[in-house]
Amino acid sequence: MKIDETLSGSNGVNAVNRAQMVPEVSSAATGKPESGSNPEVGDDSTPLSAGAKLASHMANVSDVRMDKVTGVQQALATDTYHVDAGKVADKIILSILQKQL
Length: 101
Fold this sequence. Notes:
Layout: H1 9-21, H2 50-60, H3 66-77, H4 85-100
């Protein structure tokens, strides 16, 4: 098999033009993508802002206060949970009055 290393002819020119148009994927020295090149598949990342980090953290934090839930469950189980009927009535009336305003 004979390999022609000359760039004469249309095949040689097209090969050079294609090689110039295709960016390198990674640098041999660092192993990381060069600036302006396409990153390899699965190498997508972006930094998060402080607000996004806080939102991500809050999405994973439960808004249920388990200490309160456990206390109410124990009171219900032992029949020691009592509701002040006067406080409930006051809250109902206050709620109705606020809706009318």
